[in-house]
Amino acid sequence: MSELPELVLEPLPAVDLRHVLMLTDDTGIAQHAAFGTRDLHHGYCTDDNARALIAAVMAMQLHIDGYAPGEDSRSQPRTLLVALQRYLAFLNYAFNPQTGRFRNFMGFDRRWREEVGSQDSHARALWGLGVSVTVGKADVVTDLAERLFRRALPAMEHFDALRPWAYAILGIGEFLKARPDEEVEQHARSLGRRLLTVWRENATGDWPWWEDRLTWANAKPPHALLELGDRLNSEEMVSAGLTALRWVLEVQTAENGHLSIIGNAGWYVRGEARAKSDQQPIEAKALVQACLSAARVSRDEFWTRQAVRCFEWFLGRNDLGIPLYNSETGGCHDGLQRDRVNDNQGAESTLAYVLSVLEMHRYRQQRREQLSPTERQSAKRG
C-alpha cells in the first residue's frame, strides 16, 4: 500500500490544553465560559466531557510517544491522566443502567437536569469511550471505558438520526482496534447499512446528501462511511463518503478559496439561501477529521490540503479574517458572527480547536510510523 500523503502545515501548532484544564474542575469540564473565564451558571454536559475525554487520551498518548511539541515535562502525562479520569468519571456517573442511556445536562449543583440525554450525547460518549479503549495507556482508563462502552452500545439499535449513527460507528471502529469482537462489529454493520440506505434513497447529482438541509457537524456521516467502508472493504461506502465530503466542502468554500461555514442562524435548506452568521467551530473540526480520514483511505494528497484549509479557519482564514483561536488563553471563540467573533470561549469550541490539532498530530504520527528509522529521524528534526 502507498504511504500516507504528507500533511503540509509548518509549524504544526503545539497541543495547547491551558483553557481545557481551566474549564475543568473535580466534576468535569464546564460547558460555557463568560469571555475567557469558566461560567458556572450552565453546569456540565456529557457531550463536552466525552469530547474532553478524547482530547485528554489523545494528548497523553502523543506526549508518551514523544510526537507532540509544546510542554515536554515528566509531569504532563500525569496531569493528563488526572484530567481524563475526571472526564471518564463523569461519563460513568452519567450512565443510567436502568435506561441503558447517558444523561446529558448537569447543573453546577451536580443535579441532573434530565433522566435521558439526547441521541447525540449518547453516541458521542460511545465515541469517547471507544477512543479511550484503544488509545488509553492505563488499565484504570481502558477497563472502565470498555465496561461502559459495552453497556451503552445496545441502545444504539433504537436510534433514528444520522449523526448519532455516525458517532457510534466511529466509536466502534476505535474500540475494535484494541478489542476485536464480532458482536460489536455487527452493531457497526447495522448502523452502516442504515446510513448507506438513507444515502441511496436521498442523494442526487446536484444534492449528494442524506437530508434536504445541512446543519451542524456535517462531515460526520461521510467520515463514518469512510472509516467503516475502509474496514469492510466496501467500495460503495467509501465512494459515497468521498462524494458527500467533497460536496460539503464545495458548498462551504468562498470565492477566494477559504472555508466559509454554514451558519447556525438558519443553516442551509435546499433551495434557500445559505446562512452565514454564527459559524460554529464544531463544523471546522468535523471537516478536519473527515479530510484526514479521506487521506488515509484514498492516499490522495488533495485531502490533506483540504484538512489544512479547514484548520486555517481557526487561525483567521475565514469570512472576517479574524482568528478564533485565542493564543493568550488557549481557548477558541464560540463562533463567527456577521461582523465579529463571539467573545466567549466555551468547552465545545475550545475542544473543536484542540481536537483538530490533535488529529493532525495523530495523522503525522501514523505517517511517520510508515517511514524507515532514518526517514523517521529526519522527519522529527524537520
How large, in whole angstroms, is the Cα Rg? 20 Å
CATH class: Mainly Alpha
Shape-level CATH architecture:
Alpha/alpha barrel
The portion of residues forming beta strands comes to: 5-15%
CATH topology annotation? Glycosyltransferase
Number of continuous helical runs? 13
Number of strands: 9
Distance between the termini: 25 Å
Summed up, the domain count is 1
Identify low-pLDDT runs.
71-75, 378-382
As a percent range, the share of helical residues equals 40-55%
Run of helices and strands: HEEHHEEEHHHHEHHEHHEEHH
Spatial order of the strands forming the largest sheet? 1-2-5
Shape: globular
- State the major sheet: 3 strands, antiparallel
**Secondary structure category:** mainly alpha
Report the mean per-residue pLDDT as an integer. Answer: 93
Task: Give descriptors for this structure.
382 residues; mainly alpha; Glycosyltransferase; three-stranded antiparallel beta sheet; two-stranded antiparallel sheet; 13 helices; globular; disordered C terminus
Overview of the molecule:
Residues 71-75 and 378-382 have low confidence and may be disordered. The chain is built from 13 helices and nine strands. It has a single domain, classed as Glycosyltransferase (Alpha/alpha barrel). Helix 7 (182-202) crosses helix 8 (220-232). The protein has helices at 18-22, 46-65, 75-94, 119-135, 139-152, 162-178, 182-202, 220-232, 235-251, 281-298, 301-315, 347-369, 373-381, and strands spanning 30-34, 37-45, 95-96, 101-102, 105-106, 213-214, 268-269, 325-326, 331-332. Strand 3 and strand 4 (101-102) form a beta hairpin.
